[in-house]
Fold each of these.
Amino acid sequence: MAELGKTLHAWRDRVTPAEAGLPAGGRRRAPGLRREELALLAGLSVDYILRLEQGRSSAPSAQVLTALARALRLTDSERDHLFVLAGQTPPRPGAISTYIPPGVQRLIGQLEGAPICVCAASWTMISWNPLWSALIGDPSVFRGRERNIIWRHFMRPGIAGFDRVAQTPEQAAGFTRAMVTDLRAATARYPNDADLRDLIKELRTGSPHFAALWDDHVVGFHESNVKTINHPELGEMLLDCDVLTAPGSDLRLVIYTAAPDTEAAEKLRLLSVLGLQALS
């Protein structure tokens, strides 16, 4: 694991805080990320990053390696090399990828005034910016299936922290059809993805509504909508919601924006300053 540690350290040194969307934070001995910053970006502990770099940790999991590749903005080839150094098999083309290319990460960083969430082809949330957490609720408190938007919609409607988005009956029906269509398309592109098969099995078994839509082969597409967000501190906010597909990947970007010079735009600006801290 010594070579893995040296490589991680070298990659950490080449990523600047600005590139990662972080403040510079005073004087630095090197221009790259501090261990604390890499830990924050990857969702890992500082102690674990230290042990990895010192070669004192056991083989990291594929999930940890994917998080590190995302935080370090590695290319596909570098990500695969990271997996090899850690003794893991690089992600196969037949499996849904949770890797976010550097270009997409830069796009997210440049849209800091808009709440953004990035989802895999299965609609599992893999990244989000602080403004998304402040607006919708912090996804980091959830684990496993709870981070999958489709599973949550059919199996746990109104789950705490994610019940702020109000939809008209027409919007809800369109959203449901689009999600089922997306999931069916994912099965065609990734027929060998075991987790995707398990997800669909769970949904068909646990949700008669999903099973009926799946068996009826419904078709729907994502459309731009004006949605009402009921924020616990700022009240009602009317925001435009768009779902974009990242070029060259199956990643979905869900983005909320406000029309200029509106009350919602002012509330978003206030939210970007205050973040998750209590407004009371």
Amino acid sequence: MQRYVLTGTPGSGKTSILQCLEEIGCHTVNEAATTVIAQAQALGESEPWSRASFIDDIVALQRRRQLETSGTIQVFDRSPVCTHALTTYLGWPVSAALSDELERVTSERIYEQQVLFVRNLGFVQPTAARRISFQDSLTFEKIHEESYRLFGYDLVDIPAGDLAHRVAQVRSVIGT
């Protein structure tokens, strides 16, 4: 089983790439943080990222999705290493749940060594879950790079460009 991580700054086009991969039959897993935010906002919580349990909610959903996903080749929109980057960006300490999950995914080599790093498009389109400026997204992108390198992953750049070309680049790495 091969599990690839697709990562990058908010608004870089990860979801669009993932949707294209799904259309051609790849097993894909959506970003957990977006789901956690959407569920909390549906219950009336406008900024769930401001509460301490936010990170642990993401970690729990990431783990559950990783354990439940089947298929020979799987592509994940983010991983616990991204959650580490988010924690760093927010200036919060790494929680016990995140630390344990990082240890598990590292020691068990859950994800492939090569991480597909989708580069920014030069802008960020705000959404209900994405309220980051373009300048802040560049800082967040750098923190993601640092986190993945810290945990020993190799970054495969997926530069800005048209969607078809980016999908082809990802497919060349994952072998579909």
